[in-house]
Amino acid sequence: MKIHYINILLFALPLNILVRNQRNHRKSILSTTKSELTKTHRTLCECELYAPSKYENDPEMKEVMENFDRQTSERFRKYDERIQDKRKQFKEQCEKDIQKIILKDKIEKQLSQQFSKLQTNIETNDIPTCICEKSVAEKVEKTCLKCGEILGTVVPELGLIGGTVIYASAQSAAVKVGVSKAIELMKDIYFLGQVPFFDLVAKITPSNFNDKMSLIGIVHDASYTVCETTNAQDTLTFCFSKYSIGRTNPSKFLSVTANQAKDAAEAAGEAATGTFSEMTSVGAIFSDALVISAIVVVIIAVIILIIYLILRYRRKKKMKKKLQYIKLLEE
Prior knowledge:
The protein is mainly alpha-helical. The chain folds into two domains: about 55-115; about 140-315, no CATH class. The protein contains eleven helices and no strands. Helix 7 crosses helix 9 (about 250-280). The protein is rod-shaped, with a radius of gyration of 63 Å. The chain starts with a helix and ends with a helix.
């Protein structure tokens, strides 16, 4: 037991020495070999401090100084340019802000002056009816719109009426020409038009002037009613021709008159068709006063529509500017 106490006391002495010794903090446990490093550069302590002429004439130092001056001047120049650009932008922005503030103050001042003129004590019964004054452009625009609506509804009806009138007039004129042509040719059948007791004009109507069987029936009716019931074979050429031809060949008179009536019907139909085609041609239609007036109305409607579109575009453009101005004031 005494041996252990002695060992403990002896161990405390070297431990205290190791702790209190300051050199031990700088020494490493491992032993390192000391080796001197070779210097590749020159330190300031090795330079001659009191030899300025030699320092300035050193080519390496001159090159270093020139590079430094050049880089420094370039950076300062770029910095100045950047500062000038920023100052210019800030100046423009400041001018815009100042103008906005001045404009806003001016408008507020005008509004305050106008509102100050109004009477604050206004009763409900004293409030007048608001009559909004419209600009000349808006009035013209609405007038053009109304005219366009009216013409837009009238022009198609006018075109329809014009086409119907032209077709009806052409058809009526064609029928008249066909009837007159049929009467003219029927009168030449053995002088049928000279028969006194037979009204040929009344029997040829617009419904049968181009019908072959109807005209043949009229000729046969005339030969029976006039020549058979009366003794007119000596006084009328039509009846005399019937009896003179019928003596040799009784059916020849009927066939000849039927062919002549057939030719009359065909000629009347061709005359009516030609008249109708002539009246409904392009030249005849555009020479009609009603068609010309319809074309003029259409042109006027198109011009009014163009004016309306132009005025509408200008009004929208002005409204857009006003909205932008109001938005700027609100900001």
